């Protein structure tokens, strides 16, 4: 059996979009599932779309997500170079284009823009141009004279105009198109660079790629690629075209919606592992209902035959849930490292930030959620005295006032402000009064936090606040309740 080889072949045109990440991930999983090789190839032949720094974004994203490539521009390999502009400099594409010309499968085209424009027509409101094979009929002498005169040219594929071309895609099945629809696409542009359409075929063959994984926007061009493989007498790779990704409104993901690129998601407080897990499920589902997968588990479970052709919906609610699961499962030190900047955004006082972090670890879905849970540690908010009323705890304004007044001297006398010691001291009062714990803790927690919901109980909060601030807040509560009498 031949070794499986897949590639991720991004164009360095900006951010790494979710669709690109999914292509990279699926290509990685298909290779690794079979113990194969995963290759990174940079497709920079479209010099106009090249964006400075985009290659670094690709490297960083692949590193952060754990999609480790076996061969690529940065680590080399046996079938380099792995950057298309370097391959172009070596003359690889021109060499292969000339082979096609010799076989009659491609031809030089010297038509200028004016002539090409005259071939444009409108179909369903869209302007399309089908080349009319004008230059196919130039004589050998004419071609040579033009070349000698330095006339600008492109090289076009010579496609048949009759019959059908059929190809197989693993996800979409057999697809047939009428050859009359196959335009004589450009293989080599006038700047000497190959088009994606040509370079991908040449490189996938020379780099021994067995499975081509990419977005379904390439599906309609695949018959032309097949014709190129056939023209060269090369084996056609296995095609795996992935479904479209839409937003919750079933529209294409837009750059503005905030969920379009990997970096956008990380900047919003998502964890890399959760994003990878989530992206894996955009179009693929396992045979059981498992939803949480580490990268290693994905490698084990991934079977591309289970990729669906229906559009995958980017469900932000699900991603947030998943992220929360990753945060819960995260090792505390790693969590703290990631949480600290968010905590420091709201807490400037000298408090035990690790304790605060531990309180919120199981309560957040994304890191920015932290702020709303912990802001009361920094400043006691203005709060509604009605918060002291709790039916189940049987507390009201009067009982709360009595409890706060009773516990104030206990808390003032208390030296040890550890959670356990505070709890023990207050439990003594609870038993003495013969009331339920909540009857006492509810008003205390309300007074020290000013919040209906807190990430921890009264004594844990006081442990972090310390004696002075806790007492100040209890006194404030007493004042507030007295004003209600
Ligand atoms: N360079 C193409 C892109 O970034 C890659 C398509 C492919 O995977 O073949 O869209």
TrEMBL record:
Binds 1 zinc ion per subunit. Its cofactor is Zn(2+). Keywords: Aminoacyl-tRNA synthetase, ATP-binding, Cytoplasm, Ligase, Metal-binding, Nucleotide-binding, Protein biosynthesis, Zinc. A motif ('HIGH' region) lies at residues 10-20. Its EC number is 6.1.1.17. PROSITE patterns: AA_TRNA_LIGASE_I. It catalyses: tRNA(Glu) + L-glutamate + ATP = L-glutamyl-tRNA(Glu) + AMP + diphosphate. Zn(2+) binds at residues 109, 111, 135, 137. CDD domains: GluRS_core. ATP binds at residue 255. It is found in: Cytoplasm. One of its GO terms (biological process) is glutamyl-tRNA aminoacylation. Residues 334-478 form the Aminoacyl-tRNA synthetase class I anticodon-binding domain. HAMAP family: Glu_tRNA_synth_type1. Monomer. This is Glutamate--tRNA ligase. It comes from Clostridium fessum. The gene is gltX.
């Amino acid at each position: 059996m031949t070794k499986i080889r897949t590639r991720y072949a991004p164009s360095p045109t900006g951010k790494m979009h979710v669709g690109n990440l999914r292509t990279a991930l699926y290509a990685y999983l298909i290779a690794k599932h079979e113990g194969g090789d995963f290759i990174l190839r940079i497709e920079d032949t479209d010099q106009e779309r090249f964006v400075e720094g985009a290659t670094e974004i690709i490297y960083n994203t692949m590193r952060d997500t754990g999609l480790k490539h076996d061969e690529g521009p940065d680590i080399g390999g046996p079938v380099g170079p792995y950057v298309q502009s370097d391959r172009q400099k070596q003359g690889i594409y021109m060499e292969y284009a000339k082979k096609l010309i010799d076989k009659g499968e491609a031809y030089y085209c010297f038509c200028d823009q004016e002539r090409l424009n005259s071939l444009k027509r409108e179909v369903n409101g869209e302007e399309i141009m089908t080349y009319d094979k004008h230059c196919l009929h130039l004589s050998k002498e004419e071609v040579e004279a033009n070349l000698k005169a330095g006339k600008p040219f492109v090289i076009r594929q010579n496609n048949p105009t009759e019959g059908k071309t059929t190809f197989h895609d693993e996800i979409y099945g057999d697809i047939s198109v009428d050859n009359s629809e196959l335009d004589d696409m450009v293989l080599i542009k006038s700047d000497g660079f190959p088009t994606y359409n040509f370079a991908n075929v040449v490189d996938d063959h020379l780099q021994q790629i067995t499975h081509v994984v990419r977005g379904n926007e390439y599906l309609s061009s695949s018959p032309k690629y097949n014709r190129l493989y056939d023209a060269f007498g090369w084996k056609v790779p296995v095609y795996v075209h992935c479904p479209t990704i839409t937003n919750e409104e079933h529209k294409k993901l837009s750059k503005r919606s905030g969920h379009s690129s990997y970096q956008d998601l990380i900047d919003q407080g998502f964890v890399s592992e959760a994003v990878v897990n989530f992206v894996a499920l955009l179009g693929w589902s396992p045979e059981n209902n498992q939803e949480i997968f580490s990268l290693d588990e994905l490698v084990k479970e991934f079977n591309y035959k289970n990729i669906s052709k229906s559009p995958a919906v980017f469900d932000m609610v699900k991603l947030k849930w998943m992220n929360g699961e990753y945060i819960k499962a995260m090792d505390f030190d790693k969590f703290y490292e990631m949480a600290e900047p968010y905590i420091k955004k709201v807490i400037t006082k000298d408090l035990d930030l690790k304790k605060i972090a531990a309180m919120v670890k199981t309560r957040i879905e994304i890191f920015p959620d932290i702020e709303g849970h912990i802001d009361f540690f920094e400043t006691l908010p203005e709060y509604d005295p009605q918060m002291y009323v709790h039916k189940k705890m049987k507390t009201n304004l009067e009982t709360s006032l009595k409890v706060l007044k009773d516990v104030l001297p206990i808390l003032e006398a208390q030296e040890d402000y550890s959670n356990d010691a505070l709890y023990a001291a207050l439990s003594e009062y609870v038993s003495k009064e013969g009331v339920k714990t909540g009857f006492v803790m509810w008003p205390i927690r309300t007074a020290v936090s000013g919040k209906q919901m807190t990430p921890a109980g009264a004594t844990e909060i006081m442990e972090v606040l310390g004696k002075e601030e806790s007492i100040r807040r209890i006194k404030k509560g007493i004042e507030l309740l007295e004003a209600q009498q």
